[in-house]
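debug: dumping io for the single-chain case to check the tokenizer round-trip. Nothing else runs in this session.
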Amino acid sequence: MSFWDLLFIAIGLAMDALAVAIGKGLAANGECKKICIITGLYFGSFQTFMPFLGFLCGETISHYITSVSKIVSLILLVLIGLNMIRETIRETDKEERASLSVKVMLPAAVATSIDAFAVGVTFAALEVNIIIAVLLIGFIAFLFSCIGAKIGSIFGSRFEKQSGILGGIILILIGIKIFVVGH
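debug: decoded output
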């Protein structure tokens, strides 16, 4: 898998974190730096850890799925992308957006990185340097979280839904590309 494929996957995965960070930025009340750091650390850490965990799980079953890796990648990435779009369209509670507590941020970080876990599983069946992949995914998630918090604090809710939908579309397109072209 090329660096550009990994970069686009990282961007697609980071769109969930971007959307949540925009929501957090909406409630910034002058605390944009704090929100940037907290959301960046939560989402960046989980987006780094979850694909690695998925890769390890996938390694144990990869010899069973190697012959169907392209179709498995297509199915998983399309399902993940469609789920991202569905979750983006669903409304969230305003109070939940404002909170930076572990009780709110931990589930948000896990929820936004479940798709990264599934992508990690597919990495096990593909030619992927997992260290570069997880570091890139984590860095992009951290960066997009910071950008999202800033966007939210400056522009309001204008881009929140579009970023989640765009992320889903990117993952679907990457799945189609892997199926049609290969790694």
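debug: round-trip ok. The chain has one domain: 3-181.
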